[in-house]
């Protein structure tokens, strides 16, 4: 994920007026609530730590696409929404109190580092920039946040720490790069031939079917290890996104 000098933010996220800022806040609040709500509906016990937490990765994606002056508005709004969902899901207040500083460390570390080291919207286009993105967003931010969030997990500290790191890192490996690519290249994708969308359609179908088998089958057939069978599909999703972006740039 490199950067191109002079690469501008998409106009939809320029947030140049109070009305656009308000609309963006509403969008962030809606996504921050609906994304975990959707995943929580597929998890047998939403009070436990999730194998894949989308909230922070989605928020960081938005922050990288908007001016820094509205971060102090978007971040508290998203965190309040995370807390609201946790309360509704029955997560203990003590755990939520640990998750808030963990999310703060993770979001600020990843967003500030990526904004500083990448001029504009980051793009994965070489091994070097991919390594730099991975260091800040996939390793540094989740590891730092896990020292706080592990205290809110009903398990031994280091076991909780490992699970928290993996759940956050997986989201930053798959969601953030895909969202940034979709936003910056989305209009051009719509002009591609229909055949280009056959593989994404097959991918989404397979992902939905596998998710149903894992999350909707009776509890007696449930195994925690099955959760990570989704990882190849999520990585496949990332590869498909990259190929679509490359095809658009070459066209």
As residue ranges, the low-confidence spans are 1-12
Task: Report the span from N to C terminus.
Answer: 20 Å
Number of strands: 0
Strand content: under 5%
The main pleated sheet reads as: none
Give me the number of helical elements: 8
Q: Kindly state the percentage of residues in helix.
A: 55-70%
- Mean pLDDT over all positions: 78
> Order of SSEs, N→C?
HHHHHHHH
Backbone shape: globular
Radius of gyration, in angstroms, nearest whole number: 18 Å
Supply the key terms.
single chain; 251 residues; mainly alpha; 0% strand; globular
Structural notes for this entry:
The structure is a single chain. This protein is mainly alpha-helical. Helix content is 69%, strand content 0%. It contains eight helices and no strands. The protein has helices at 18-40, 55-65, 71-89, 93-117, 127-149, 157-189, 198-215, 231-250. The model is unreliable at 1-12 (pLDDT under 50).
């Amino acid at each position: 994920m490199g950067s191109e000098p002079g690469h501008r933010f998409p106009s939809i996220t320029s947030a140049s007026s109070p009305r656009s800022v308000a609309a963006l806040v509403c969008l962030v609040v809606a996504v921050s609530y609906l994304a975990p709500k959707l995943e929580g509906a597929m998890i047998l016990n939403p009070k436990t730590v999730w194998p894949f937490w989308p909230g922070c990765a989605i928020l960081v994606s938005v922050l990288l696409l908007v001016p820094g002056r509205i971060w102090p508005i978007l971040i508290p709004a998203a965190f309040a929404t995370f807390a609201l969902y946790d309360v509704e899901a029955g997560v203990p207040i003590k755990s939520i109190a640990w998750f808030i500083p963990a999310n703060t460390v993770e979001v600020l570390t990843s967003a500030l580092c990526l904004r500083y080291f990448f001029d504009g919207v980051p793009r994965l286009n070489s091994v070097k920039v991919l390594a730099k993105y991975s260091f800040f967003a996939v390793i540094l931010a989740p590891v730092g946040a896990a020292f706080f969030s592990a205290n809110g997990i009903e398990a031994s500290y280091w076991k909780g720490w490992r699970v928290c790191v993996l759940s956050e890192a997986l989201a930053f490996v798959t969601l953030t790069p895909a969202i940034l690519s979709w936003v910056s290249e989305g209009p051009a994708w719509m002009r591609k031939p229909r055949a280009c969308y056959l593989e994404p359609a097959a991918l989404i179908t397979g992902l939905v079917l596998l998710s149903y088998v894992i999350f909707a089958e009776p509890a007696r057939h449930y195994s925690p290890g099955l959760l990570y069978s989704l990882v190849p599909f999520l990585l496949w999703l990332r590869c498909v996104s990259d190929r679509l972006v490359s095809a658009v740039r070459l066209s």
